[in-house]
Amino acid sequence: MTSWLVIGGGISGLTAALAVLEREPTARVTVLEGSDRPGGKLSGARVAGCEVDVGAEAVLARRPEAVELAHQVGLGDELVHPTSAGAQVWSRGRIHPLPRRTLMGVPADPGALTGLLTGDEVRRAAAEPAGRVEADDVSVGELVSGRMGGAVTQRLVEPLLGGVYAGHADLISARAALPALLRAAQDGQRLQDAASGILPAPTDGTQSVGTAPVFATVRGGLHRLVDAAAGHITAAGGDVRTGTLARELRRHPDGGFEVVTGPRPDPTAYRADRVVLATPPAATARLLRDVSPAAADRLVGVETASMAVLTFAFATESLGQLDGSGVLLPPVEGRTIKAATFSATKWDWVRELGRGAGPDGEDVTFLRTSVGRHREEVTLQRPDEQLLAAALGDLRAVLGRALPPPVDAHVQRWGGALPQYAVGHVELVAQVRAAVSQVPGIAVCGATYDGVGVPACIGSARRAVAELHPAQ
Prior knowledge:
- By secondary structure, the protein is of the alpha+beta class.
- It has 3 domains: 168 residues, FAD/NAD(P)-binding domain, CATH 3.50.50.60; 163 residues, Protoporphyrinogen oxidase, mitochondrial, domain 2 (Polyamine Oxidase, Chain A, domain 2), CATH 3.90.660.20; 105 residues, protoporphyrinogen ix oxidase, domain 3 (Orthogonal Bundle).
- Helices cover 34% and strands 23% of the residues.
- It has 18 helices and 24 strands.
- The radius of gyration is 23 Å and the shape is globular.
- About 2% of the residues have low confidence.
């Protein structure tokens, strides 16, 4: 019987444990999670007496991994898709529809940006020159601004990158975030021509590509995926232990590995033949320090961004109508929030959840805002009440009207939530994996490596297990 330790109980770690048990049902699998609950950034909380997502709320359905996992853990029939409400951008004091044929904000048709951008800015984007990018990697900002003008980056690319990575265009790797566009530019194509060839349909997150919806979630909240996954691990004979922070990882003299947890005066040691590290970059670097110092040295340089999700419940009648699925706010606008999601407009299940949920049986409308970008942690260094007040002020400005006092509100802070894919990140990941592969029995996975979205994390976890498990 092979023994496995999975360090980190987020969606990556839970998926890794499931993958092991699927390949080797007799394996002894233990997941060690340092916090008091599994799931990482997939989390729910009660707002106005209703359980809603306060972390990730959706998955990219065009990638199969998350949909497959939902079916695997018994939630396939609970998958739902967004309404037809469209995404929007708030720019220069007005709400604009997010242009549909864009790839992370890069337009296939610059003419569609009229209104969101000035005439001169649209003409600058349309006049994009062709030319070959010689570098192996550049920042997204350098790639887009240099070809289509800074306005495209500031008012389209930046707000989208802020939503996905909580990062900045001038710091994020084009090879990691926009690989197809970078390859096209390296071949001498214009970005708009490459985007046009890549995009078969609108990409604002609410439209369909053919008959396949772009995004999906689980009715009742994406956090249900975590509970179902943990339940399946336990039912299959695995063990998910929370409140168990791994402090040290070392080789055992008799073979395999030992992981030390608990307070230093009273430690607990776990033995395993194989170890999967599904932890953030700093924690992974710390654990790898003795067994793979080369990998640790590379991982310690990966920065992360902190953020917060602020959820509001308003009396529906007093709030009034909300149009669209939400609004992105470019950082150039200087607002605290970077986006507002009109949850009750975006998701039918959230709208139904709010019916009769008020303290006197009135309907409530849920919406949420997000705060925090890379290297802007000072924004989050305020009490919850101040963050909520700032978000309400921004919502008033965006909607152009007064807002009633919320029935309830919730602040969920995510410290170091999102690893930043700096220029050269793809090569860094390759170097980390090459170093770790020199230590038989250890693999790494998670948002640091192959993408920050839920499907990417699931795929990363399955890859890690496949690397360690004998081929079948």
